[in-house]
Design goal:
alpha/beta, 6 helices, 200 residues, 33% helix
Length: 200
């Protein structure tokens, strides 16, 4: 397989995921300054190389990239896009939705700050997303979130105790696998609901 798929980490457990290098596909935002994925890449150059490999493959041969992503999803119960990085372009979100539609058995999770790009795609699909695609808009202080379709949101509780989350936001307990197998947390957020994470 050409795409480097992670088989999980300490937070996500055994949930497979694909990532790109930190910051490269991300919007310019204050979160860039304290990005946990960027710190990890500095500590573990092999991780950075895997993410960079995926990015180069996507740019040079996106058909192979998507064929192999879908092959993994076909054999998985859960999958996450982008522990590091974000949706790079309009074609990507288009294909992500198509893959989710073809693989309803797999619950697919994606946090994104590419609000305009996703809103455009959702608009073209008459406001509909596959039920198994959990597209969650990711907030940050001083970042204007455009969420006309009322998608679920993720917010941060900063180290000073402040947050942009509403009071009734669901607390992240830090165990993606546990939430996945118990049908809770981010995997089942409904429209208008929020999850709040402590700053990494």
């Amino acid at each position: 397989m050409n795409v480097k798929i992670s088989n999980g980490n300490s937070k996500m457990g055994k949930i497979p995921s694909v990532s790109f290098p930190s910051l490269l596909t991300c919007i310019k935002c204050d979160c860039n300054k304290i990005c946990y994925a960027h710190k990890l890449e500095k500590l573990r150059p092999s991780v950075r190389q895997s993410y960079l490999h995926n990015w180069n493959l996507y740019k040079s041969d996106r058909e192979t990239y998507w064929r192999e992503i879908e092959a993994t999803i076909m054999l998985s119960r859960f999958f996450r896009f982008h522990v590091s990085g974000d949706i790079p372009d309009q074609d990507y979100i288009h294909r992500m939705i198509d893959v989710a539609n073809r693989n309803q058995h797999c619950e697919i999770l994606c946090f994104t700050k590419k609000f305009d790009m996703c809103n455009k795609e959702i608009s073209e699909r008459k406001g509909e997303l596959p039920n198994n695609l959990h597209l969650i808009y990711s907030g940050w202080k001083n970042l204007k979130m455009k969420n006309p379709y009322n998608l679920p949101e993720a917010h941060v509780r900063y180290r000073d105790g402040t947050t942009t989350a509403m009071e009734e936001a669901i607390e992240c307990d830090g165990d993606c696998t546990e939430c996945a197998i118990t049908d809770s947390g981010c995997w089942v957020l409904k429209k208008g609901e929020q999850v709040v994470f402590n700053q990494h």
